[in-house]
Amino acid sequence: MHRLRRAGTCAVAPLLLLVAAAPGAANGPRQDYQLQCQGCHLADGSGSEGADVSPLAGVPDLRGRIGRFASLPQGRAYLVGVPGSAQSPLDDAELAAVLNWMVREFDPVVAERGFPPFDEHEVERLRRPLADVASVRARLLRALAGRAGRDAAAAASARTRPALAAPSAPDAP
Ligand code: HEC
Questions:
Q1: 1 alpha carbon – ligand 1 mean position (Å)
Q2: Is residue 106 a contact partner of residue 45, using CB atoms and an 8 Å limit?
Q3: Which among 23, 48, 133, 166 has the fewest CB atoms less than 10 Å away?
Q4: Nearest in space to 47 (alpha carbons), one of 24, 64, 26, 63
Q5: Which domains does the chain have, with CATH numbers?
């Protein structure tokens, strides 16, 4: 009797572990992130950027960036197409929910401004493995830098215009 009960427990324990680790078992995006993504991207989304002696070298920092990618059409295709997303065991609706959760969690400034959330139809359409992740990412960063540069130039010219119009200071050379 005693021995039987022990055998039963042993058989059930691994099954419980499997159920806990199975994607989509009504986990919600936070738990899906913890189970499927956090091992590499870490709890705070910082990844391993800047850490040169890390077994995770090359996992980009999501903070302050993922929402910016989500604001460009080609950036949305990138977020869905990176291997970690496209090849995850999550279904399209779950992946959409995790990506939305990641934008809110790791890029709150963009999330507060409002971004078009992913849904399962968009994820289904975009879920194609990228041919060359690094070069797509580099192009996106250039597009974002160009956009930030234009914003900064506009802000700077708005700031300097009145100063240029003002008479020069008496001690100016
Ligand atoms: C085995 C490690 C690993 C896991 C697990 C992982 N990723 Fe990643 N992720 C990476 C690496 C490495 C990159 C950099 C691009 C590349 O080389 O794939 C990346 C890049 C990304 C990016 C683009 C970020 C950027 O700034 O370029 C997103 C979005 C992303 N992953 C989402 C996810 C999601 C969602 C999951 C979980 C469902 C996940 N990843 C799981 C390693 C991982």
A1: 49
A2: yes
A3: 166
A4: 63
A5: 24-154 (1.10.760.10)
Measured in whole angstroms, how far is the alpha carbon of residue 7 from the centre of its chain? 44
**What's the CA-to-centroid distance between 47 and ligand 1, angstroms?**
9
Please answer whether residues 103 and 70 qualify as being in contact, where contact means their C-beta atoms are separated by less than 8 angstroms.
yes
Q: Is 109 helix (H, G, I), strand (E, B) or coil?
A: helix
- pLDDT at residue 163 above 70? no
- Ligand 1 neighbours (beta carbon < 6 A): 36-37, 39-41, 58-60, 62, 65-66, 79, 82-85, 88, 90, 98, 133, 137
Q: 127 with 95: CB under 8 angstroms? A: yes
Ligand 1 center–CA 91 separation, angstroms: 16
Torsion sign over Cα 28, 29, 34, 35: positive
Amino acid 9 reads: T
Residues 49-103 pLDDT 10s? 766 555 556 899 999 999 999 999 999 999 999 999 999 999 999 999 999 999 9
